[in-house]
Amino acid sequence: MTENKPDEQPGPTSPWSAQAAQAAETPSGDGTPGGEQGPARVEAGTPAREEQGLAAPGTGTQQTWVGGAWQQQGGWQQPTQQHGAVPPGTQYAGLPHPGVPQPHQYQQPRREPRRTGLVVGVAVLALVVGGGAGAAGGYLAADRDSGSSSTALDAPPTAKQTAAAPAGSVESVAQKVLPSVVQLQVRGRSSAGEGSGFVISRDGYIVTNNHVIEGAVDGGQIQAVFQDGRTATATVVGRDPNSDVAVVKAAGVDDLTVSELGRSDDLRVGQAVVAIGSPFELSGTVTSGIVSSLQRPTRAGGDGGNQATVMDAVQTDAAINPGNSGGPLVNMQGQVIGINSAIYSPQSSASGSGGSVGIGFAIPIDQARRTAEEIVKTGKATQTVLGVSVRDADSGGALIADVTGGGPGEQAGVKSGDVVTKLDDRRIDTADALVAAVRSHAPGDKVTLTLSDGKTVQATLSGQTVETS
Known about the structure:
Shape: globular
Number of domains: 4
Helix content: 10-25%
CATH architecture of the largest domain: Beta Barrel
Radius of gyration: 40 Å
């Protein structure tokens, strides 16, 4: 698991390929060789035509091309296969070359030595005339086809899109949400980075992740870049490293487009969602997917984080990459239902250079909204607590390692060594699952804890101020 952090944008590549088709040589309309070279046109399912010449050994009869076949006088003649005949179904594009069957060839009729010179002359004359007719046919075909070739480039452009985006489509969501999404450029004392955020007030309050802006907390700078091209310097209003939520304020701006906040307690696995942000410095990037899972315990600091940073995440397969952090995850009504915060990437490193593999995590908006509201009003965030420390139980569940005196757990009768297996109706199989379940509630909420021995206890959760020093 790794947090989204800025990374270099890889240079996009766009391979192109080109093909040049040459003309296929075809027999002319009268069946004799001839024709011209033009753009190759291959018709699927049409076999190549196979022509046969007729040899007339010992007959001396004259051959005449009639109705698409050789006709002769003087009796029936045995047909013979022509040289270089093309098997039916063969298709060609381009000029003949070695190793490729040649265009149709024709046999000349064989002449017997006993024929008279007059008959031979007549046969030669017939061949000459036939050859000339074939050539003429070829030239006529060339004239006929010279202007007939057309391509898609000859067609006029299609009409411009004028219809409004269909309600509930990714297109309509993007049109609604994009104006409220902000790119945050952060420069610290020794590093620079980038992330995303979304506007919650017309005068410049922006919600984002704590890890996006924490580099600018101690003397750094934050630049907010809005979708309309405006830029403004932003300052940190408050932040909560534990829930990974922060609020910044852009100076000197007004009349901003404000995000519409939805709710996350009624999300369903499989419902469509859209993520918007600035992955790899590509501002205004829109990706779509579904809710892959709910109530996924996730450490905001990755595997190196501690239990204080566990969030009750919404898992999604919408592409989330470094730079998406702090941007909104929205439903198909364009309402924010989460803050994109972390991704799982097997190839990632401690520097957070991994990319999306379809497993991203967002902070549920119900939790983030409560934290952001406290920050805007007081500059501080309050964390919901049970007043116990926990670790994974060997048999599954959350083992109570220590109980804070006077805390909600002690008041409920929870003791060190107890194993919590359920919180209300939610199964608890790890220590992080219990922490995430508690964090999904607000201070003052009442919950029922089920212990491994079947005993249940009632606890009223409390809150404590989050320290950011």
